[in-house]
Amino acid sequence: MRSLPRLHRAIVACRACPRLVTWREQVARDKVARFREEDYWGRPVPGFGDPAARIVVVGLAPGAHGANRTGRVFTGDRSGDFLYAAMHRAGLASQPSSRSRDDGLTLHDAYVVTTLRCVPPDNTPRPDEITRCAPFLDEELASLPNVRVLLALGAIAWKAVLDHHARLGAALPRPRPPFAHGARLEVRGRWLLGSYHVSQQNTQTGKLSPAMFDAVLAEARRLARG
Asked: Which residue among 55, 203, 211, 223 has the highest number of C-beta atoms inside a 10 angstrom radius?
């Protein structure tokens, strides 16, 4: 198994999905007006956080003008603002915001990854793209020896974590438990928790409130303590 730095270099160099390569580079080239003067990352985005983490947050994919711009997961957009503010309140992040790769943010007992490492068009990955990216999720999670809780943000991440356990040979319930906010499942000594995604679509409509997400993080911390 590769070290995390070696794995991260392999993730950044990946060009396995032509549609995603084309899109991520087009977004990085065309930019948006408010970031016109910035250099976009425009490559796959590896995970970020504490290698000794007991809690891993699993998202969907890099944001087009967030992580695809900054090169760090959930950094530089409203989803990241919501996520890291909540993690800061929970004592898992050193500061409540994340603007760039070099802004000084550190995570304690937590690690953040995405199911897909490249931004997809319309924020909608294809099943074959998730399948090609899955070995990166498997290897990154295998490189985090202390994980006790996997917090899936949304249905795609929930399925990705269940698929990850299935690839490891875990006996999953049949039928598989569906995604729901607050859903909980123990698999091979680890807990899988579900939360609505921290996207603007959810947070600005009230589908996911700070209090709701704080409660999920509090449950994650409780389960992580064992």
From this structure: 55
Instruction: Report how far Cα 206 is from the mean position of its chain's Cα atoms.
Output: 21
Q: Residue 100 corresponds to which tokens in the numbers above? A: 């760039």
Run of H or E residues at 110: strand 110-114
Half-sphere exposure of residue 3, counting CA atoms within 13 Å on the CB side?
2
CB atoms within 10 A of CB 13: 9
Residue of 211, 174, 213, 207 lying closest to 193 (CA atoms): 213
Record the pTM.
0.97
Q: Angle 78-89/210-224 helices, nearest 10 degrees? A: 50
Instruction: Please give the class, per CATH, of domain 4-224.
Output: alpha beta
Tokens of 178: 């569906």
